[in-house]
Amino acid sequence: xxxxxxxxxxxxxxxxxxxxxxxxxxxxxxxxxxxxxxxxxxxxxxxxxxxxxxxxxxxxxxxxxxxxxxxxxxxxxxxxxxxxxxxxxxxxxxxxxxxxxxxxxxxxxxxxxxxxxxxxxxxxxxxxxxxxxxxxxxxxxxxxxxxxxxxxxxxxxxxxxxxxxxxxxxxxxxxxxxxxxxxxxxxxxxxxxxxxxxxxxxxxxxxxxxxxxxxxxxxxxxxxxxxxxxxxxxxxxxxxxx
Length: 242
Hints:
Number of helices: 10
């Protein structure tokens, strides 16, 4: 079954709004990490070999995530690119810097102490690697003006950042269903990471197929031609001069 873009647009808006609300909710809950009293999430991690370093990494990660996910959502809006291309470029560059030099490094360090052991550590690191590689490739594609390729990579960045929201939503659902805590944590991590990557690749294949179809149509002269916009040839100029 083929869905029309007009039917998919409300779904896209709903997803973006849900991610924005989820990001704001997580940021609000994370303010406890900056208080004098230790938050329950921090207490359950103790003891840590370098507690101060881990705490600084957590705070950096929270600040970076509070900026990067909303920024990626804003950058994904077509009207921002159309109406304010310069703002789009500078916001994209800033987001890339914060992602590569704050969000990913702090997340990688914290992953070493993730709840759930090695399986969780690998899952978080895999997501971080996808974000870092996709961000670098996305920047390179944008600088080379390969915008279809750029869109594919930045969608991977957004998709992996959205794991923070979808994972927490799944944990709430698992908790309500009384699913084993350890199992729930691993499933709520790995399923969004893999599913987000797969979804972006499927969307990218669809986009590349459509682009190839348009290109093939143009190359085989099957596209409709507007006679009013026919290029002026030398023969026409000679006829006009009489």
